[in-house]
């Protein structure tokens, strides 16, 4: 397996281009199943998860062609559609479940493997099931697959989710776009990726109002047409690279960044002593004066602090002046990066969903292991500020969510390289 070698070398300077959002693109791609006309996505990220979704859509009968070095995805689904999303592909990626709503809407039936072959209770697919059942779908679990059928087609309905699930909101939006009548989703997720999907669906002819709020109204259409849509900037990649100069000093402009994508995150950076300035081309980030200050962080659904930036924020707070408390309220077992940061000299105590970080003067380079996507990049960030060399192993996680991370960080002066496995 490849590893990333990072050597702490002081302040960074320059510009980092921010890619299109992985989580937005993974929801936009299945929208091609809703129409027999082409859907073209621009500003697409070049990631392994995008290749996995391409593989899944191809298995269902869609065509996906990567153009302009992968930055443009030309998709089409005008032929015969296979309603079965096989476990061998779905197991690779959680977002594979986003084909369920579109398949049901287009065909009236679908057979989709549970992500990772797990039980519904272990991962909240029940929220998706309840949302689609409200539209008239009958869904049962058999042998690790969700067998869904909507006899006579989906019908508009009002449904309130018990949790503002992003994926379930996306599945409901796509399914309701072709349902008969009006649908209302209450306690809907408000993330920018939801707004981006709604924009794309409207470009395809859907009638949607209220996206970005907790109540979305969809007027079902008989059919949707083709469209071209630019993928929104990746707010998680944006937040990650904003933390690079915050951790090791200097000034970096993140091209394509917008404060409205990360307002709560920017508020925490300001409290910690980090300057964030909106420019004509992006966000300029710099440490204000001296050592950063400790801050407390609680992850919440948008517009709260993103769970996908918690690990990276912990890396920053390891060298803050004072004690910080991070509370993880979205996902369990999301502090697995903490023991690896401790290997680098951090002082962290984890108790259930809380992590207490006592700031230290300096981190020290060490061999560490990535446990998941966001943990992997948090260790790279920590390595940027550490004395000596940090070797991050198992970085295959990294390639699922960050394109060309070594190239982007090296471009602003970081000493970083990928070491290929023998």
Automatic annotation (TrEMBL):
Keyword Kinase: no
UniProt keyword terms in alphabetical order: Cell cycle, Cell division, Cell shape, Cell wall biogenesis/degradation, Cytoplasm, Peptidoglycan synthesis, Pyruvate, Transferase
Binding site for phosphoenolpyruvate: 22-23
Reaction(s) the record says it catalyses: phosphoenolpyruvate + UDP-N-acetyl-alpha-D-glucosamine = UDP-N-acetyl-3-O-(1-carboxyvinyl)-alpha-D-glucosamine + phosphate
Residues that, per the record, bind UDP-N-acetyl-alpha-D-glucosamine: 94, 308, 330
Main location: cytoplasm
Modified-residue entries (2-(S-cysteinyl)pyruvic acid O-phosphothioketal), positions: 118
Transmembrane intervals: none
Alphabetized CDD domains for the sequence: UdpNAET
Pathway: Cell wall biogenesis; peptidoglycan biosynthesis
EC code(s) of this entry: 2.5.1.7
Keyword Cell cycle attributed: yes
NCBIfam families: murA (TIGR01072), PRK09369.1 (NF006873)
Protein name: UDP-N-acetylglucosamine 1-carboxyvinyltransferase
Recorded name of the encoding gene: murA
